[in-house]
Design goal:
The structure is a homodimer of 502-residue chains. The first copy, chain A, has 502 residues and is mostly helical. In chain A, 64% of the residues lie in helices and 3% in strands.
Chain lengths: 502, 502
């Protein structure tokens, strides 16, 4: 039996090596590749992806899983191998239901749709992308039909990103969160506005990167197993336990992305670096879901990196780097980096309004998949939700419905919920960490992050994808997903900044 | 029939994509990878290499070749496809003779031998590497035995690098060259020595790289399909027609490698960039042999980049970059970069003595394979040849027999001849180019390299590996490999520099 497990692992490691090689090629494409390399790179990536898929849906994998099934389902000899068996069984059953013909058609469509969007967005040309969106929606419906028996047509799409979660439960959670957030935004808007002009000035991004590197290192990102580069869109990417890289971007005239996007990606990367080395090369060796991943990136970026405790220690150091801040008091700086302002752009949104951006996209995805909304009606529906939730209306498509790459570069359905699930989880997880180690806030106030990092590593990172997001959240916090901790955190933090009465 | 060719090409493109992905991973390893990435990278590369090999020795490839054979051998419909058929047939027959078990054993041995050498060389510890060299020699003999019927045991090893060439003909050619070179070196040593102290001073390597970038661009290296990075050992690497990169290295206190190694690698890279785009993704889409490749790298580096004509135009520009040269006349600088001096290190050798370094290694490889020399006797034999050919004896193993990575990182046999074959060919090829376009020297004197580059592209680069080195040399020069052109070139150039009487 052990022998079968070894055979399975050998096959899985080959697939992992193909996927890791593809990841290196992706990273190279984003950071290093000369323009002339595009065409061949697309072909190389398609080949690696096709070979990885072929190796995974090989009936031999199914036979090995079947041979393991009888005893492994009940009493696996080790936790790691039991989790690996469950994970691979689930992904294998998912993979073999989708015909290779569909996968290739969908991949080709995504590539075409992305190119059309990239050209049409600067022209503000929704008509150009509309037929591609219609095709994307059709492809998503087709995908769902390979998984009959779902409660909601979005469920098979959602479960790819968040195993075990459904449209119904996310919709209920999101509705509860929205009921709390909309009034909070309104109260903040009625308060005296925060002045964030101190963040605009002479902030060379190379200096912001250098400061961010120090902070990432202090957080626990290991540069001997990673590196930081500049790209158009920031990302974190894992090639192996020993090689998890991050990229960032920024402006020379604004203290913002160059620092905070770096912390965000380091949060993703610390999760990947913290996965137990024993899992390396196996499919369980990565973060378990988009939501849990966001709980780490946004946890380090916001709950730590935008907290008063953090800046009590770090602000004098920041002032040393940037003379423009010398005369700005900590309280003013802290309010500036946490300024709440309804805006059109999700990725630039503050902690309070951010989730409104996410939840409206999620709702629109569901309405599209349900057939309640057509692609032709999508721009109007988008604008109506921005008006009702945030009180502003996009003046164009570019900063409206054509804003995010997701629907154009990947497809429709199951793509946005993770951002807000991550925020919800981050509040629960940090509350649990502080229950376990009440000294954490004081440590952060002293520039020490080791207790928090070690607790996250031991309770979350090390497990990789061995547990589903729900299982993991239960293990870590003893709770199911809850709205209250995030709302309490936001009310307390922003109540203080904006002087709202409790 | 056409259909079979298409099927063959589809299979070959998959293999090409795997090899290209491996090349990207190698480049990343040398230029970007954090130290923590080593272990996983070795595993990823081994997997890609194994899969590429498995895809190539697939009996389906043999069946497709057999189906094509009857008509393609006599009258292929196109030159490209005919050449592809011949190339793949030859490589397939070579690949299937070598058992997978041998290939894996040899690869594992090379990896181990390299590590031992890398640790032992700084310690000057030949005893540590001796058993590995003995095993390498044994593996080379084993390899040769998979190709019975050879004239010389080195022939199967040589033909991997230079298809169609044999130990006997190379030995004869090299003997002739050596008979001309040894007295030339002696006459130069008897002449007044050249003072090259002007090359040592304040020469920041970033400025040397910048100057080299301009020259490479002027030569015809296309940076929109390539890039330049710094590595421990310079190299050029092809991922595709649109992506051929070079690396270099240098010192801040010496005008040398940082400039000339960059030109050398750009020579390799222009060859790869010049292969017809129609061949991209096929196995004929790369330079045809080590020797022809060296003819291009050393041709651009030495016959152009160390010529008086080249510096007549470029020296004033170089002086603008480096104030230390302001007072140094062109003639002094030109002599300095061409100073001939017997030395221990091959890669640092001048144009005249370089081939002596190469040929003695080639002769020692043959003696080892013949059984005329044992590994235990190798250091003494090495030192004796340095004394007899160059008049100097290594004081240690480090700069003696343990100097080059080849025997330790790859194996013994067929590894060195290409360097001198390339020098011989470069003289023949440049003579042919100048016969076809007598204006080339005057153009170089004006900083123009387009006629030379275009002639090389149209006559050599575009063909990739469609022709064997011998076929290509005949097409390009109308001659077989000859010693006289290189000797005439060296006698004329260094006779002038050293004031030797004709």
């Amino acid at each position: 039996m052990n022998d079968k497990m070894q055979q399975l692992k050998e096959r899985l490691r080959v697939i992992n090596d193909l996927n890791s090689a593809a990841a290196v090629l992706h990273w190279d494409q984003a950071t290093q590749m000369p323009v002339g390399g595009e065409a061949a790179r697309a072909r190389q990536l398609a080949t690696l992806s096709r070979l990885a898929h072929e190796h995974f849906v090989d009936p031999a994998i199914g036979q090995l899983l079947d041979a393991l099934q009888p005893e492994w389902e009940e009493a696996p000899p080790t936790e790691d191998d039991g989790a690996l068996y469950r994970y691979v069984r689930r992904e294998y059953e998912r993979a073999i239901r989708v015909p290779a013909e569909y996968t290739e058609r969908a991949a080709a469509h995504s590539t075409a749709a992305f190119s059309v969007w990239a050209a049409a967005r600067p022209q503000d040309d929704f008509a150009a992308v509309q037929p591609y969106l219609e095709q994307s929606l059709q492809l998503s419906r087709e995908y769902a039909h390979y998984f009959p028996g779902y409660d909601h047509i979005a469920d098979p799409l959602i479960s790819r990103a968040e195993e075990g979660m459904t449209a119904a439960e996310i919709r209920a959670i999101f509705a509860e969160l929205r009921r709390a957030l909309v009034p909070l935004v309104q109260r903040i808007q009625a308060a005296a506005p925060v002045d964030n002009s101190c963040l605009f000035g002479d902030f060379p991004r190379e200096k912001q990167y250098a400061f961010a590197r120090e902070i990432c290192t202090a957080f626990g990102y290991d540069f001997s197993r990673g590196r930081l580069d500049e790209t158009h869109h920031p990302f974190a990417i894992r090639f192996a336990h020993g090689d998890v890289r991050i990229t960032t971007r920024g402006r020379d005239d604004h203290l913002g992305d160059a620092f905070f996007a770096t912390l965000h990606e380091a949060g993703h990367a610390m999760y990947e670096q913290g996965v137990a080395e024993a899992l390396d090369g196996l499919p369980t060796a990565h973060g378990t879901s988009s939501g849990v991943h966001e709980s780490q990136s946004r946890g380090w970026e916001n709950l730590v990196g935008r907290s008063l405790a953090f800046w009590e220690w770090q602000y004098p150091r920041l002032q040393e780097c940037f003379p423009d801040l010398a005369a700005i008091p900590l309280a003013q700086f802290y309010a500036a980096i946490n300024k709440v302002e309804p805006s059109l752009i999700r990725v630039a949104a503050d902690e309070v309004t951010y989730n409104l951006h996410v939840m409206l996209r999620f709702d629109l995805e569901l309405a599209l998949l349900e057939g309640e909304l057509s692609i032709a009606e999508l721009p109007a529906a988008w604008n109506a939700r921005y008006e009702s939730d945030l009180g502003i209306t996009p003046a164009d498509y570019r900063d409206g419905v054509m804003q995010d790459v997701h629907w154009y570069g990947i497809g429709i359905g199951g793509l946005f919920q993770g951002y807000t699930l991550g925020n919800l989880m981050s509040a629960q997880i940090h509350a649990a960490a502080t229950r376990a180690h009440p000294e954490i806030p004081d440590e952060i106030r002293r520039g020490e992050y080791g207790t928090l990092h070690e607790w996250l590593r031991a309770n979350i990172y090390t497990h990789g994808a061995k547990f589903t997001p729900k299982e993991l959240l239960q293990r870590v916090t003893g709770e199911d997903l809850r709205v209250a901790p995030l709302v309490a955190y936001l009310q307390q933090k922003f109540g203080a900044i904006y002087g709202l009465s409790g």
